[in-house]
Amino acid sequence: MGPGVTDTLLYVYAVTDADLVDAEVDGLSAVDDAPVHVIAEAAVAAVVSAVDAQRFDALALKRSLEDLQWLEGVARAHDAVVSRLASHRPVAPVRLATVFTSTENVRTLLRTRARDFTAALDRVRGRCEWAVKGFVITGHTAPATSAPAPGLSPGRSYLERRRAERDHRAQNQHEALTEAAALHDQLAQLAIASRQYPPQDRTLSGHRDEMVLNVAYLLPNGEESEFRQVVDAYQGRHLRLQLAGPWAPYSFAILEGDQ
Fold first, then answer.
1. Tens-digit pLDDT profile for residues 137-150
2. Phi-psi bin for 39: left (phi > 0), alpha (psi -120 to 50), beta?
3. Taking a C-beta distance cutoff of 8 angstroms, is the pair 11, 28 a contact?
4. What is the pTM (predicted TM-score) of this model?
5. What CA–CA distance (Å, rounded) separates 138 from 160?
6. Residues 195-252: pLDDT tens digits?
7. Edge-to-edge, what's the strand order for the sheet holding 44-52?
8. Where is pLDDT greater, at 191 or 88?
9. Scanning 41, 59, 106, 175, which has its CA 20 to 30 A from the CA of 92?
């Protein structure tokens, strides 16, 4: 390390109210198992831990963020800290792998964006996030089949069958999208807020069926029974649902301008 260059950086997990004390974060499993501590400034406080500068500087992060195994480990540690805090206080999670060179730089962030952080915390105070994903049900009905038209060659008959199958899949997806839109309208009325995301690719979702619904909903803590009943009772013909939560309200604690 050259003159004036530190060998550690401060990894920031989340921001919360300024009354957070170090005792509340003792024993948390952070990135690289480093101890977590609190930096308070103005009306808010940041939850941080020290990380190796050679592994978390800009160049190293550019390489590491393409390493899925490394990324998963950091993401798990990041979420463990945020979820523990969110279990008993409002938190505004900070983007994964956000680092600062010094305590004073963290304090500067808290001072300059205190109003934004406070607004984000008030938005999620006493609330949690639930996620609903919807997948097209495939193979529940087969396309109507009929005897090939007289005089068609085997090749033409094959092409006609393939066309019928494509038309069937397209119609099935259209019906699933229609069901998804109607369901979202119903769930959104039961939530304080909702945030729609693009459907995930099959390789990311881990499901064979195509995703057509990917929405986060903000609900009051402990008041999700009616919301869950709607999802559990859903019996659409073309849409299969997946419900997950409650989680820390990542989708709704985003600072204005950071979306």
1. 876 555 555 555 56
2. beta
3. no
4. 0.75
5. 20
6. 999 998 866 666 678 899 999 999 999 999 999 999 999 988 889 999 999 988 889 9
7. 36-41, 44-52, 8-17, 92-100
8. 191
9. 59
